[in-house]
Amino acid sequence: MYDTNLVLGGKEFTSRLIVGTGKYASMDIMRDAHEASGTEIITVAVRRVSLPSGESILDYIDTKRYTLLPNTAGCYTADEAIRTCYLAREAGLGEMVKLEVIGDQRTLFPDVEGLLEATKVLAREGFTVMPYSNDDPIIAKKLQDAGAACVMPLGAPIGSGLGIRNPYNIKIILESVTVPVIVDAGVGTASDAAIAMELGCDGVLMNTAIAGAQDAVSMARAMKLAVEAGRLAYKSGRIGKKLYATASSPIEGLPDWTS
Amino acid sequence: MSVTITVNGKAMEIEPGLTIDGLLTLLNVKREYTAVAVNRDVARKADYATVKLSEGDKVEIVRPMGGGA
User: Fold this and answer.
1) Looking at beta carbons, which residues of chain B come within 8 Å of A108?
2) Do A51 and B60 touch (CB under 8 A)?
3) Contact between B44 and A90 using a beta-carbon 8 Å cutoff
4) Positions of chain A with pLDDT under 50
């Protein structure tokens, strides 16, 4: 079936799965998981260099092959997030950023006020802003109007593995905006990713679900298949739900067993 | 006379007139995919050779690390 590509900041991507680089048991496993996931976009945090500086995570990511997506994880104000994006750009990590302004340490829920403020500034500065937000259709629309390249509502809290807790809100977000909708955070297993895609989302971003699995590499492959399957099911147009059975074999032509 | 600056949260004594470029060389930091901020402002790579560090400057040297969200 014909499908369009995911377009972000004028760049086209065939894969609709974006993955992270945190919490892997080893760098080799991370590299193999990235490969198995079929991803084209990999998100990285921006942190202090440990001195003396040793091995870099980018020794394990082929930057010619993958698009890097620096994130502002750990930022609690718009100012911190904006400065982190400037640092990422100066470091040569590109202008596509996963914008996070966190509101609370326990839930890691977004501070949408700060998020909106930072989105406005960064979009004006030419960044391709991908904001991690809560699953609120109103803020999704505001982020779009502020210049966000996509909106990234959470499925559930970061790292929780609870799946898509409010599919109805995700559905309303899909109706509220024209930019791509990428579910970011909350995915626990393959069916969660499939559900996001079946709802009509344009992509899924995940880290812990893959990195924390007992076999991260095979989970990465499972996620690749789930995102593809969910997307295909969405594009194929599912049947309606009905309360009672509808036979799929014809009634006509049944043999007569009466004696 | 030496100058005291803070680099990634740690105090450090440097020679007066040391530039960002000089500091990165001194610390043996790889330049690729690295960025520097001095007193909260991101330094442009083109300015590394000319920006001199002064007493009390807070320097942050960052690079990509593993993370998802």
Assistant:
1) 69
2) no
3) yes
4) none
Given a contact cutoff of 8 angstroms between Cβ atoms, the answer to whether A73 and A96 are in contact is no
Q: Letter for the amino acid at A86?
A: Y
Tell me if residue A218 falls in helix, strand or coil. helix
DSSP per residue over B31-65, as a string? -TT-EEEETTEEPPGGGTTT-B--TT-EEEEEEEE
Q: How far apart are CA A135 and CA B18, in angstroms?
A: 49
Measure the CA–CA gap between A170 and A152, rounded to whole angstroms. 10
Name the residue among A24, A83, A132 with its Cβ closest to that of B42: A83
In terms of CA atoms, which chain B residue is nearest residue A158?
Answer: B69
Tens digits of residue pLDDT in B1-55: 789 999 999 999 999 999 999 999 999 988 889 999 999 999 999 999 999 999 9
Active site residues of A: 98
Q: Cα–Cα distance between A124 and A128 in angstroms, integer?
A: 10
**What is the per-residue pLDDT for B39?**
95
How close A243 comes to chain B (CA, Å)? Answer: 41
- Is the pTM value of this prediction over 0.95? no
Q: Which residue of B has its CA nearest to A75?
A: B69
Interface confidence, given as ipTM, is 0.92
The residue in chain A having the minimum alpha-carbon distance to the alpha carbon of residue B39 is A83
Quick one: which of A229, A240, A184 has its CA closest to A208?
A: A184
